Amino acid sequence: MTEQLKKKIAELEKLKTNSLTIYEIYNSIILNFMI
Q1: CA 7 to CA 24: how far, in whole Å?
Q2: pLDDT per residue over 1-35, tens digit each?
Q3: What angle do CA 34, 27, 21 make, to 5 degrees?
Q4: Domain map of the chain by residue range?
């Protein structure tokens, strides 16, 4: 994993609510990279 990706995951982990799953976080990361 790149440092940028690690930072992105850490960011999303902080913002994560009970309704947001790890799966959804990874999906959003993938979508961000596709745009």
Answers
A1: 17
A2: 689 988 988 887 787 655 567 788 788 888 888 76
A3: 160
A4: 3-34
